[in-house]
Structures are given as C-alpha cells and as structure tokens.
Amino acid sequence: xxxxxxxxxxxxxxxxxxxxxxxxxxxxxxxxxxxxxxxxxxxxxxxxxxxxxxxxxxxxxxxxxxxxxxxxxxxxxxxxxxxxxxxxxxxxxxxxxxxxxxxxxxxxxxxxxxxxxxxxxxxxxxxxxxxxxxxxxxxxxxxxxxxxxxxxxxxxxxxxxxxxxxxxxxxxxxxxxxxxxxxxxxxxxxxxxxxxxxxxxxxxxxxxxxxxxxxxxxxxxxxxxxxxxxxxxxxxxxxxxxxxxxxxxxxxxxxxxxxxxxxxxxxxxxxxxxxxxxxxxxxxxxxxxxxxxxxxxxxxxxxxxxxxxxxxxxxxxxxxxxxxxxxxxxxxxxxxxxxxxxxxxxxxxxxxxxxxxxxxxxxxxxxxxxx
Length: 371
Prior knowledge:
The protein is built from twelve helices and ten strands. It is an alpha+beta fold and about 375 residues long.
C-alpha cells in the first residue's frame, strides 16, 4: 500500500505549502462570496416583494447548504492551478472529495428549498380556521410532493456519489448481469412498500383525505394529523393516535366528514310518550339554537321519525361550522330539551301504562293489560 506522506502527495514541501495557501484562499474567497450572495438574495427578495413566509423560510433554510457549496465550488475551480504541484494520488483524492462535497451540497440545497416552500405554504394557508378546505388541499399536496421530491433527490445524489468509485461501478455492472432474477425477487419482496408509495402519490393527486380532515376509520372518530408516503396518522378525539398504512384509504371504505366543506348537520333523538306536544318542542328547539353560540344559523328542525307500542321517536337536527362545534351543539340541545320536557311536560316522559278493569260482580279489579 502506498505510504500517504507529504512527499507522496506533493512534489516538494514548499509546493505543499503553496497548495494549502491557494486552496485555503479559494475557500476563504468562497466564504466571502457566500456572504455577498446572501446579502444580494435578501435585497432581491425584498425588492421583488416576495411574500414574507417564503422569503424568511428560504433564507433560513439555504444558509448552511450554501455555506458548504459555495466554498467547495471555489476550491474545485482552483484545483487546475495546483495540478503541477501535487501528485496524481493527491489530485485524485482532492477531486473525488470535492466532487462528493459539491454533490452533497447541491442535494442539500435542493431539499432545503423544498422544505422552505412547504413551510411557506403552511404559513400562507392556515388549516386552523373555519372554511379551510382549500388550505387543507394545498397543504396536503405540498407535503406529500415534498416528500416524494426529497426522497428522489437523496436517492439520485447517493447514486451519483457511489458511481464516483470504480469498485461500485463494477459492482453495478455485475448486478445488471443478473437483473432479471434480482428484479423479480426485489419486486416480490417490496411489493407492499412500492404499493404504499404509489398509494401516497395517488392520495396527493386525488386527495380522498387531506390534513386536518375529520374522518371515521376503524370505528374511531378523529382528525387526519399526518400523511406520509407510507402511512397516515389519525388523531382520535381522546388524543390517541391510530397509524394506518396509506393503502387503507385506497382499498377500504371510510367516512370523511369534511371532504367538500367543514360544516355538518347533527341529530339528537328523543323517545317520549304519545302525549308529548311536538309543536311546543319544535318551538323550544328553535329558541335553544338561536340562543346558542354553536349554531351556524343554517339548519334546524324537529320531526317524528318513528313510533313504537310505547313511545314516539323525535329527531332534532341542527347544523354547525365544524365537527367539534357540532358535538357541543348536539349535547346542548339534548340537555336543554330533556330539561324542558321534565319541567313542563313530565307526563310525556316514557312510562309503562297498566289498565285496571273492575269486574261486573263488584269483586276486586284485575289487571286487564298494559300499553
């Protein structure tokens, strides 16, 4: 193995010092150039009136990638000036190292730009406000597409780095010779993973679910908290998290309460005696919702929807701007209607009736039946 000493890397000791000075000066020049570019970019974004979220996120995210990339490019550009003073081995080490550093820097810069765009979109389109369907659509698409693009950039950069070495190129050629068999084996082994990736892209485009959608899945009520390329996290109302493979939302049915809008209509059922005055309860329901802060002033009504041998079924309906508000409105209506019936029409509460019939001979009455 060749001894990596100063004599083997540089022609003379003085030449080694000159090389270090030249390359070090190029690195310092790159740092100064980065500072100038950073100031120029700040001034440019301020003059072109970019939106503040993108401007701030972009300048903050690209800071470290640019600090590495610009000096590395300057040093790489200065390499031809020191070729006569370095050995072939030193030149090979420097070229490969700087080339890898540039590739990593470019990949890091591209991923940082993607994250900056996602951050700016999230700040521009806020999902924590009413009527946020369009915002949730944009945020979901941006988040998934950012993950797809970042994954592709990292894979491509890693492939380019590995191809810088002859041993990896020979390994790749050997693998290509048996690509048919390897492809079948890998395809079978990664079938589910690839299916999840395809499903993630499909959800990003067709959007059966979006971030912050209200869904009922696996019998649980919750909100879509996170969508990745392979799984979806649903936050249940009691703060539990359900993690589901993303193919679940492609292959199995589920309820999406906010697919087109966030407003919803809820129901409250009451089971009362036949003597209940329905019109009075209907008017009381109107008074309740008009006094409630949860009602959106859109839908309200009360109807008799079913009867049995003992009770009638009343269904009260009302609308609210979103699922949490609707839950509070339903509880309020149920509580106040029950209190109203108990206070004003206690005889209308469900009861078991028994009829006593007196015999014609004057003996004690007997139970004649129940209603």
